[in-house]
Task: structure prediction
Amino acid sequence: MADVKKHDTPQCDELKNGPWPSFVDDIEQKGLSGQQACLDLLGQLELSYTHKETHWKHGGIVGVFGYGGGVIGRYSDAPEKFPAVAHFHTIRVNQPASKFYSSAFLRKLCDMWDHRGSGMTNFHGSTGDMVLLGTTTDQLEPVFYDLTHQMEVDLGGSGSNLRTPSCCVGKARCEWSCLDTQAICYDLTQTYQDELHRPAFPYKFKFKVSGCPNDCVAAIARSCCSIIGTWKDDIRIDQAAVKAYIGGELKPNAGAHSDRDWGAFDIQKEVIDLCPTQCMWMEGDELKIDNRECTRCMHCINVMPEALRPGTDTGATILVGAKAPILEGAQMSTLAIPFIRMEPPFDEFKEFVDKIWDWWMEEGKNRERFGELIQRQSLQEFIRRAELKPIPQMVKEPRSNPYVFWSEDEVEGGWKRDIKEFRARHAA
Amino acid sequence: MAVDMEELKQKILEFATKKAKHKSKMYIKDLYKADPNAKPREIKKAANQLVQEGKLEFFSSGSTTMYGVPGFGKSEEDQFGTLEE
Result:
């Protein structure tokens, strides 16, 4: 059934004028097909642009039975004007590992959501889950039933819970993947069901899994615990393919930048000179790598994918404590474990997780992310509680986060000493 | 020593009800004070069981989850109104 536009939205309409598809177009189209909530949503957005403040009331007690996450209450503070969005709750749905869907699943999900909600979705924004936007309280349990019984998917994490773990495409489609990212993501999701669905922590906690140091899910920038695939042995070199790149038979970057003529491929300029640790050189027409110095930046492998490949002795590097806007700005995660085998049932990794969660649950302040706890209580304390061995790679800059401080029991005589005896030998 | 879950639940409920008279929403860390000898995981487990039993309720802002006692503070209907049929 076609509908008519309910509200004048000149400011929203401005957003349709750019060169890219606009969310305003999408929402309006959906509204004109009969979803009143979409039309009222645009009306409320227009009002927010006029007033330069939000008209959403945030939060509530809504949820589904047995779960303390996955549903976020949203209410309009102008329900008389926009009755179709008076109650407009968001539902987070746990995405399948690596986000593989069948079209049949997506059709079923959209049909269900057209029937029980606004029909609007947000797939894999910064939250990562499938997000179903806008429904009323009485529809929450029916939606939950349909999701779990008809579509065999679960709600995702929200609030002070473990958030839905996410992973890159991994070995399913990527030859660089050093990890079975999907197996890890699925195992963590199943193991930590209680933490995912029932609030346990001072704030949110995120696991993200990338198969190689290219880190396609940006685990190092966005997750409290980043699991990033790496290798222990040497980068595999196919010297014939190296020659083919130099000779121009193979296109660098697999032809990714071929929209412009960059001239002949120059291995010295485009690969060797750009190596951050300068661990590569040519000997005659052979490429050599000092693998001990490699920091896994992936540049050479990205440029010459047919010539260079990650090693075969694979595992993961574990880093902790990333957060997008931490007190002083974005914080990348800090190295915790340089190499760990990630093979089912991942016991060694889970023991590590238990230790850091125990620390955070005991010491974390309300709304303090794990990375902020490390910042506040020190890297040294993190190392102690995680029972790790300090290594130089944990230090970002020598004077800002050193991990070596003596504790009193490590110093002969402790902190107390006889000052007279000291002064007898050293003038003041 | 294993904690008596029923005893712990009772302590949490008493603590939360007392606190709710002044502040209707509390963080999980606030509930730790109900029994300083209990471990955070045990408190969390007991608090979640109380929610299942309807004696406590979750309040989620989307980013953080808090606990409340039903009947204290503004109810969902008071705050946001009911939808017309």
Q: What stands out?
A: Chain A touches chain B at residues 57-63, 65-66, 68-69, 71-73, 75, 79, 83, 86-87, 90, 136-138, 158-161, 198-204, 358, 361-362, 364-367 (CB under 8 Å).
